[in-house]
Structures are given as structure tokens and as C-alpha cells.
Amino acid sequence: MKVIGIGNAIVDVLCKVDDKFITDNNLTKGTMKLVDEKEFKKLLSNLKIEGTVSGGSVANSIVGMSQLGDEVSFIGKVNDDELGKKYIEGLKNENVKYFNQSKKETIPTGSCLILITPDSERTMCTFLGIAGKISEQDINIEAIKSAEITFLEGYLWDEGHPQKAFEKAMSIAQKSAMSLSDPFCVNRHKNSFLDLVKNKLDIVFANEKEAMSLINAKNFSEVITFAKNLNKLIIITRAEKGSVAIHGTEVLEIHAKLNLKIIDLTGAGDLFAAGFLHGLVNKKNYIESLSLGTQMASKIIQKIGARLD
Length: 309
Prior knowledge:
This protein is α/β, with parallel strands linked by helices.
């Protein structure tokens, strides 16, 4: 196994709506809102489902790697309900091994209602469900040991059971990687994330905002200095400024692709990580891996959704 991912197992439910639906339900177009099960069901009750996709940030990366021909797997938590079955089926269709047996839970499978308006804008309502309740019992020891890299999702980190699940995985992994996921996550878990980056992870993915927020940096050169002192592999995406890989004193940088017809930024970081990790596990150098990450991110932002066909 090249890479095993551990992350939020969330089913993306895609529905087409008009602008009136957005305003009538007090939603802000183009944003993501966390909702409870009741609100999720109410929103969905009057809609026609166009399709469902097995989503989640690290799951998107893992599927991207599978599409590049890598042998990969995923651990996430779903219920034994209709959406849970669709989630597992969706991963299997992408040749991703799923290592967690679904069972009857009191909390449903996590889902994200993606409302697509005629202008192609996406407004998301996320019900995390059982996805955020992952525990150390859900960690398959043999699967982690057999993978070259264990890739963790910052979105999933939380005190209690998820933290214990991460710590168990990191303690037995050959190499641990993590995406910092979102500036909101970084600010919420700053001390924990700093400890992970400094002491427990081998590879870290972040965008420029997340990296600067992590160390309260005033400029990007402070991030470079911090990363050099870690002697880890730190990969930072910088949108139109390109991306950087820092390993010890080595700092490698490539430019972003220009003149792209950007349609939807969903999944850009997820697919960048897929391309970079693909390069890494196939013995490419850091510049080649950055280039592969850039290619994958460039493709995904020119289509709707976080999955390449």
C-alpha cells in the first residue's frame, strides 16, 4: 500500500437550485454552513438529487492518487445507512480500499448538501454526522503498518476520540503526513497543531494562510525560517504565487500555471496533495512532485467538484 488516508467520510449530495432557494433558506451563496440533521433533512426534502459522491478532503486526495495508478486505502466512519453504503460503494468504484466496517450507529453518515445555482456557484450545507466520531477502535493497525505514508486530515482533529485515533495511527505509521485543512482549524487547534508539526508529523501540507496563522507570522519569510528549522518535509501552496517544498535547508519552488479558466476552487488543495504524494511515493524529486501537484490542482479548478473524471 502506498498511502492510507484517515479523514471525514462525507457524502456530497448534489442538487440544482435557483437563487430564490438560497435566499428563502437564509443561506449565503458560495459559502459553507454547518447544519444539524433536522435542518439538513428539511433542506433536502424539496429537492431532486442530481448525484452523490464520496467526499471529504483526504478522501478526495486518496481518490486522486488512485486515479494516478497508486494503490491506496481510506479509513473513515460511516453508518450502515443508505448514504453510508453509497459512500463505501463510491470509494470501491475508484479502486480505493475501505478499511472500516460500517455498522448500525445512532448518528447518520455525514453529508454535505451542495446546492448549485444557474451561475455554477456552489453553496454548501454540511452535516458532519458520524464522520467526526472516529475513535482508536476504528484504526486498522495492519493497514497503517503496511502503508508507506499515513495521510491525516486536519478537519478531523478534535479533542477526545479523534485525537486518540490520530495518535494511535501516528505511533505505528511508517511516515505520517497531515493537511492543516483550513485557517479555522489552525486557529482552533493552534497549540495541538504546532505540537504535531514540530514533534509528530514527517510531512505537512498547508496553504500560505494556514502556515502563517500557525506561527502568527507577519510575512512568508518567517514561515520559511520556521520550516527550515524543523528538518521535516513542509509543502506550502501559495495560490497564484505557486508552491514551495522545504526540507531542512533545501527550499524548492515552482510557479503556478497561468491563464487557467477557473470554474470552481473546491478540491484544489486536496488534488495538489494527491499529485505531490504520487510523486513522492514513486521516487520523484521534490520539484517533480510539486509539478505533479500543480498539474492536478490546475485540472480540478477548471471543472465543478473535487473529483477528476
